Amino acid sequence: MSTASPVTLITGGSSGIGAAAARSLLERGHRVAVTGRSEERLARFAAEAKEIAEPERLLTFAGDAAENGDVEAAVDGTVEAFGRLDHAVANAGFATPGTLADGDPDRWREMVLTNVLGPALLVRAALPALRESRGRIVLVGSVAGMIHTPGNLYGATKWAVTGLAENIRLLVTGEDIGVTLVAPGRVETPFWEHSGRVPEGNLLTADQLADALVWSLTQPPNVDVNTLTIRPIGQPV
Description:
Elements: E1 7-10, H1 16-27, E2 31-36, H2 39-49, E3 58-62, H3 68-82, E4 87-90, H4 105-133, E5 136-140, H5 153-172, E6 178-184, E7 187-188, H6 191-195, E8 204-205, H7 206-217, E9 227-230
Parallel strand pairs: 1-2, 1-4, 2-3, 4-5, 5-6, 6-9, 7-8
């Protein structure tokens, strides 16, 4: 295993967009760490990844993206095992069904903490290592964070991520750290298990989103790609 190959940590990396990005990076020879709350999903992803990469190039960490101790443990474990951290990808997130008028308030706290606090915790924990590597940060937002829909609290959390991306860029751009917001439209992933319904019409695949995410991570050092908005053909808003 080359100790010169880049190292990426992806939260929510055991399924969906995060897993697709992890597989793409592993195929490129990178070293990757992924986090997730389900040990079963992490184990299944690690078993599948053996088909494309040596086991020593993949780390998995069970934990909650909205718990500071879990996030710090993942970052510290990655740096300890691989000796560096080049990319931090805040991908963990989910939506709850309904609106402010008819949704379940008991689920809202978890969603808000995962979608908004989670990226902030990852950036805080990863910054020391990213300053050394002059690395990159990617936040996975959403088109829902750029448009308004009636009573959509999930959209409000993604509006927060949109703002957080620029906030972080202003904080770290003077330290040669790149920051990218990837804002997908409708994507065919397990995301819809939480939101309650699969939308009609054309959907992007997780691999298509992963291609864009990996592209942003593999730009030349002097290039800072700030916002990628990606919709399937036919999605009007």
